[in-house]
Amino acid sequence: MALLEINKINAYYMHNTQKTRAVENVSLSVEDNEIIGIAGESGCGKSTLVKTIYGAIEPPLYLENGSIIYNFKNLSSNTKITNENIPFYWWKKISYIPQASMNVLNPVRKIKKFFENLWRAHRQDLSYKNYQKLLSTHLQHLGLPVSILEYYPHQLSGGMKQRVIIGAASLFHPELIIADEPTSALDVGVQLDVLRLLLKIQNECKNTIIVVAHDMSVMANFCMKIAIMYAGNIVEIGKTLDIFSHPLHPYTKLLIDSLPKIGDKRGLKGIPGSPPDLVSPPSGCRFHPRCPHSFELCKKVSPTMKEFSAGHQAACHLLERGETNERK
Ligand SMILES: Nc1ncnc2c1ncn2[C@@H]1O[C@H](COP(=O)(O)OP(=O)(O)OP(=O)(O)O)[C@@H](O)[C@H]1O
Q1: The CATH number of the domain where 247 resides is what?
Q2: Ligand 1 site, residue 317, Cβ cutoff 6 A
């Protein structure tokens, strides 16, 4: 049984009568003890998808239909996690490291206040003394000196602040950690440290990590499985090696081709055009206006996900015709 079963969800932003179709018809299984990446260009719905998984669904965001089943361990058999009760499981079973998470620290409060609030809101079942013990052991284990608790956020570097947030997200050993662009706004060396820290946590706690990034090199180095999103839809999903060695969807291929490669003298290839406005996305396959292979059917009919090899799925009419995604 998968840890998470996401079935055909549609998540929309509503502003008056204007509907932004940020996530549409997305189905995804997330297994226990895996690191799965969600990749795609800016504005393709990655953050909306993970916010929906976390249950942070507040207006103007609505989950219009579909379901998410959470199969966390050690829950009584009649416990069902829903949008209403999911906040009770936050930090304990499911944690969320939001985009630009270092900015969630209150600039006029010491770091210890942040952790005190975390205890007050979520772990009053632990005595404060035991919580403090747990916290200092955990911080040290993650390579953070306990003295940072006495610091204000402005006294820490961006990387330290990100480690504090990752420390908080992993403190109660949740089964699922969602990290939305955990390395953005950090310099390359610090990015590596942050990814290593997440890997260390995953190795030790065997939790599942969903990581969002638009940077395919982060995906390549960090994830076991990757889901590629385009304009609100998942267009391809597979093991990292399969995605990079045999990308199926033309969009995935273009994303990978846009990565710099050592020794490649051909120059970088960009993806022509830009992602569509999700208020009125293109008909049929949403990628068809930018796709070098599109044909009549692509403009009219939205392709469905099909499995082309074990665990490797994509939604593309071209593949169904048995053709490849080599650039024309
Ligand atoms: N609060 C909001 N109200 C209306 N539309 C929104 C809101 N937040 C996001 N959107 C829209 O939803 C779509 C998906 O945005 P989302 O942030 O999920 O994409 P993303 O892939 O995570 O992008 P990025 O990498 O830039 O964060 C975009 O068209 C965006 O403009």
Answers
A1: 3.40.50.300
A2: no
Q: Is the CB of 233 under 6 A from ligand 1?
A: no
How far does the centroid of ligand 1 lie from the alpha carbon of residue 208, in Å? 24
Distance CA 96, CA 3 (A): 16
Q: How many separate domains does the chain show?
A: 1
- For the Cβ of 13 lying below 6 angstroms from any atom of ligand 1, the answer is yes
CB 42 within 8 A of CB 300: no
Can you give the pLDDT at residue 311? 95
Half-sphere exposure of 149 toward its Cβ, with a 13 Å CA cutoff?
18
ipTM of the predicted assembly exceeds 0.90: yes
Whether 141 is covered by a domain: the verdict is: no
114-151, pLDDT tens digit by residue?
A: 999 999 998 889 999 999 999 999 999 999 999 999 99
Question: What pLDDT does 325 receive?
Answer: 63
Ligand 1 pocket: which of 18, 21, 24, 48 to mutate (most atoms within 8 A of CB): 48
Cα 125 to chain center, whole Å? 30
Ligand 1 atom with minimal separation from the 275 CA: 29
* In the predicted structure, residue 83 carries a pLDDT above the cut 80: yes
Residue 142: left if φ>0, alpha if ψ -120 to 50, beta else—which one?
A: alpha
Rounded to the nearest angstrom, the distance between the alpha carbon of 121 and the centre of ligand 1 is 29
The reported pLDDT for the residue numbered 185 is 74
Range of the domain at 199: 2-93+174-260
